Backbone:
C-alpha cells in the first residue's frame, strides 16, 4: 500500500487485516482527515430481482450498497419466483453474475413459495446459498421449523428467521402503543415477534441448528436472546439502524415511516441499545426494502412495509451512536463487519474511504437506489463516502 496519512480502522481487535486489500492502491491523495474502513457486510437486504424490478434491481441495489460502503450483501428470498429450488435460484444467480458490482449472496427459502407448507429444496440449493430464510413471513408451524432446522444443520447451513405470529397481527401496521391509540391506527403487538423467537430458540437448542434472528425490535426479544446465549444456544441476531435511532414518538402519517417490524416504544429502543452494548445484538443490518414512490405514498395504513437504508446506514449510525458517545467507532465496525463476517463466514473483501468530518444531507437526488422512502429524508448526518473498492476496482 502506498503511504497515506489516513487512519485505518478495523474494529475492536486486529482480526480484520486490510493490508492485502490495500496493497497496490495509490492512496497518497487521500485526505489526512479521512478514515479507511473495511467493506461493510449487510446480512439483510431486498434487491427485488427477479420479480419486482420496478422497485429495485441487482444492479441498482448493489450500486446503492457500494455508495453506502458495503462490499457484501445478503439478499432475501421474497422474490418471484421464490428461490425455493435449484431452477428458481438460478434465475437470481444469473442476474447477480451479470449485474452485481459487489459481492451479492442470496438466501434460499425455507419453504416452497415461502408458504410454510412444505420444505423447499434445501439439499439442492445448499451449495449456492448463504443460509435459509422465509423473510417477510414467519414459519408458523413448529414442526415445519423443527424439520427445517434438522435439515439445515445436516447441510451445515444456518436458519435465518423473520419472527412473526400471524394470529397476533390482527391487521396491525404500526406498533401497538401510544401513537396507534392516539391516532386511531391498528397496532402490531410486541408478542407477535418475541413469542416466535422464544419458540425458535427452543428448537435451536433442541436440534443444535445455528439460528439467526432478523431485525429484532422489542425489549422482550433482547431478553430472550440474551438468556439463550447464556445457556449456550447457537443463536445470533441483528437489529436495524432505525430501531436504534427512532421510536414510535417520532412517527408521522406518511408511508415513509412504515416498516415491519414497526418502530416500537422508547423503552424498546433503549433495550436494543443496551443489547448492542452488552453484545446480545451481534449485527446491524439495514433491511433495505425499496418500493415505488406511488406505493409508499398511500399513508401508514395502505403503504407496503419497508424503507430504504443501505446508502446512509453508516453515516446515521456514526452520527447518532458514535458521535454521541454511545458506542465507539471500533464497536460500530464490529457490528457492521467483524461479527457478520464471522457468523456468516464471509471474508472481508473490500474497503471504503470516509471523511467523517463532512456533513451530508440525505436527499432523494443523492440516492442510487430506485427506492427513496426513508424517515431520515432531508436530515443531515456526518460521514461522506469518498470511495468504495471491491475486487480490486473502485465501485463507488
Residues:
Amino acid at each position: 500500500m502506498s503511504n497515506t496519512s489516513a487512519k485505518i480502522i478495523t474494529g475492536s481487535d486486529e482480526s480484520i487485516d486490510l493490508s492485502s486489500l490495500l496493497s497496490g492502491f495509490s492512496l497518497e491523495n487521500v485526505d489526512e482527515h479521512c478514515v479507511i474502513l473495511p467493506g461493510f457486510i449487510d446480512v439483510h437486504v431486498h434487491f427485488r430481482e427477479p420479480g419486482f424490478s420496478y422497485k429495485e434491481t441487482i444492479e441498482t441495489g448493489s450500486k446503492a450498497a457500494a455508495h453506502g460502503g458495503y462490499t457484501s450483501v445478503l439478499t432475501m428470498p421474497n422474490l418471484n419466483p421464490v428461490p425455493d429450488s435449484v431452477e428458481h435460484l438460478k434465475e437470481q444467480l444469473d442476474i447477480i453474475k451479470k449485474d452485481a458490482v459487489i459481492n451479492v449472496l442470496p438466501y434460499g427459502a425455507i419453504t416452497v413459495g415461502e408458504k410454510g407448507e412444505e420444505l423447499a429444496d434445501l439439499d439442492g440449493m445448499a451449495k449456492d446459498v448463504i443460509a435459509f430464510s422465509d423473510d417477510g413471513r414467519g414459519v408458523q408451524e413448529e414442526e415445519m421449523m423443527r424439520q427445517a432446522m434438522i435439515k439445515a444443520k445436516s447441510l451445515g447451513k444456518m436458519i435465518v428467521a423473520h419472527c412473526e405470529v400471524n394470529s397476533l397481527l390482527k391487521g396491525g401496521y404500526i406498533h401497538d402503543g401510544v401513537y396507534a391509540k392516539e391516532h386511531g391506527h391498528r397496532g402490531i403487538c410486541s408478542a407477535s415477534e418475541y413469542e416466535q423467537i422464544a419458540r425458535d430458540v427452543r428448537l435451536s437448542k433442541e436440534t443444535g441448528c445455528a439460528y439467526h434472528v432478523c431485525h429484532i425490535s422489542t425489549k422482550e426479544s433482547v431478553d430472550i436472546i440474551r438468556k439463550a446465549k447464556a445457556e449456550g444456544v447457537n443463536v445470533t441476531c441483528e437489529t436495524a439502524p432505525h430501531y436504534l435511532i427512532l421510536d414510535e414518538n417520532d412517527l408521522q402519517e406518511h408511508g415513509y415511516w412504515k416498516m415491519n417490524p414497526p418502530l416500537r416504544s422508547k423503552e424498546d429502543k433503549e433495550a436494543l441499545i443496551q443489547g448492542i452494548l452488552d453484545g446480545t445484538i451481534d449485527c446491524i443490518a439495514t433491511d433495505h426494502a425499496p418500493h415505488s414512490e406511488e406505493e409508499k405514498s398511500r399513508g401508514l395504513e395502505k403503504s407496503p412495509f419497508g424503507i430504504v437504508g443501505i446508502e446512509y446506514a453508516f453515516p446515521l449510525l456514526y452520527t447518532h451512536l458514535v458521535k454521541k458517545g454511545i458506542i465507539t467507532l471500533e464497536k460500530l465496525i464490529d457490528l457492521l463487519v467483524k461479527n457478520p463476517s464471522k457468523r456468516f463466514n464471509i471474508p472481508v473483501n473490500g474497503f471504503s474511504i470516509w471523511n467523517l468530518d463532512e456533513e451530508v444531507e440525505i436527499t432523494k437526488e443523492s440516492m442510487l437506489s430506485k427506492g427513496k422512502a426513508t424517515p431520515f429524508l432531508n436530515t443531515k448526518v456526518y460521514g461522506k463516502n469518498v470511495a468504495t473498492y471491491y475486487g480490486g476496482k473502485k465501485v463507488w
Observations:
- The chain has 13 helices and 14 strands.
- The longest strand covers residues 350-361.
- The mean pLDDT is 96.
